[in-house]
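pinning this so it doesn't scroll away 📌
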Amino acid sequence: MKKLALAAALTLIAGAAVADPAEGVWKTQPDDGAYAHVKLSKCGSNICGTIVRTFNGSGEYDSENKGKQLVRNMKPMGGGAYEGKVWRPSNNKIYLGKMQLSGNSLKLKGCVAGGLLCSSQTWKRVK
């Protein structure tokens, strides 16, 4: 019985240690003159991203958006693809979103109006 409990505990620990390849800190492209560092991490079985640092032309500053969730419930679809939602702080709109991971580059695309109006950015991994 002790061996079974130990095996179950080790399995849980090993499963919890597996990181999603998109996890980490990413630098956004400038939007309305500012950019951010966004920390992507697990939120259940999906990926979410929170703004952890903000920058403008003068350098780092304390934006009201720090701590807010930018990437919301991105579900891994396989092959580095994710689908979920993205919040754009400059207009306070939430878009249907997709992410595509390729090495240290992450392309995000957000659309409204059934995909008629879309915007995209390519983020670079910070760490």
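📌 and the second one:
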Amino acid sequence: MTEDTRPAGGGTHEGQGGDGGPALHKGSGGHGGRASSWLAVTVILLGFTVAGVALCLGPNWFVFWMGAAVCAMGGVLILVFRVFQDIVVEAPRRMSGTGRSVLD
């Protein structure tokens, strides 16, 4: 692991690094993630919205369970696309004019 990807305490995050863990990406401060990960989250959000609207309209149980099935399908996509491996590790922030980390 390079110096700029280490956490503020100088240690390592468990499961990361050269031991076969997820790849470390130098962060840009944004919300990282692949397009496939965002697709899985969008499918879950769509299913949740459909199920919520179905509860408000009656309730319409058939449409509710269809929305629930879409949510479950999104959960399977999250596992298949390995969404939780989309991590962004930023370099520790430094206070201006000092060599100390903000968390020190």
